[in-house]
Amino acid sequence: MKKLLVLCAILALASCMFAQENNRIHITHMYGLDPLAGQPASTITYNGGPILNAGGTSIYIVYYGKFTAKDTQIINFWAQNIGASQLYAINTTYFDSTFLHIPAGLNFNPTTNTFNDNYSMGKNITDAQTQAIVANAISGGHLPNDQNGVYFVLTAQDVKQSSSFGTFCGVYCGYHGPSTSIVAGETIKYSFVGNAATQCPTGCIGNAAVFGDSTSPNNDLGADGLVSIMFHELSESMTDPEVNLKTAWAGSCGENGDCCNFVFGSTKIVKNGSHANVKIGNKAFLLQEMFKLTQMQLPTDTGTCAQK
Questions:
Q1: Whole-prediction pTM value?
Q2: Measured between alpha carbons, how far is 240 from 185 in angstroms, rounded to an integer?
Q3: Fewer CB in 10 Å around end: N or C, the chain?
């Protein structure tokens, strides 16, 4: 047993050594810290890079640290149903140089597409360690190796995270980027999103930040806040998966998620008194709007923030 524990520790350390801090990540600014906030976007430009338009894109989730059963139920439900929503369908307005659009639909199975990591890198992690967490999940056989997928590392309330761009709850709520070190010779798309319920609810959770709500549509500020940032990062991963490596859709407002960051459009008050703006499956959520292309032209297209 001792030898096994030592071997596991060595493998984890080795993964950290090979993972490198990623200077290609693209962050989601906290509410009130976005330098482009308040500047309505009307255009976005295609810069020639790839998009995830081959179809069959899967969502993978590493739950890093302690999440409640309620947390994971909300997040897994969202991941299972977001691909069929009208909100996600906004991403199908994006296309590449051949005018091949991103298709509707996403794959997610809570049994095969999730992995629970019990603080393998501690409670203060870097971006390099975040990549190592994904690398270990893949190399350990817990998640498949999929260059057409998007890997989310979701951190628990008691985890702090930092990168070359700043810190979680200090500058950003999450980020995404391409990694060439998670799997040698491949470009893996990954994203970090933290549970902001205790560290910065008024910075990263729309209900608290924008509306001053003390709760959220599913009575879980942390999980509800996570999925809105996940939608931001997912949409950007679809339309600009290799940001700053081979950039695709980005413009003066940033990527498509940035163009509508913390913009929710029309909302309603649900039974618990919190704000919601969309139904995903049969559950209410407060998810940011997404930048929808309107002209289908290259290289620069016009668009608007929309819910469908």
A1: 0.92
A2: 20
A3: N
Q: Count structural domains, the chain.
A: 1
Structural domain range at position 83? 2-306
CB 190, CB 176: distance < 8 Å: yes
Asked if 256 contacts 229 with a C-beta cutoff of 8 angstroms, the reply is: no
Q: Which amino acid is at 258?
A: D
Number of H helices, E strands in the chain: 6, 17
Q: What is the C-alpha to C-alpha distance for residues 115 and 83, in angstroms, rounded to an integer?
A: 20
Written as six digits, the tokens of 49 are: 């890079």
Write the pLDDT tens digit of every residue in 245-294: 999 999 988 999 999 999 999 999 999 999 999 999 999 999 999 999 99
pLDDT, tens digit, 9 for 90 and up, residues 172-224: 999 999 999 999 999 999 999 999 999 999 999 999 999 999 999 999 999 99
How would DSSP label each residue in 248-287?
Answer: -EEBTTBSTTGGGTT---S-EE-TTS-EE-EEETTEEE--
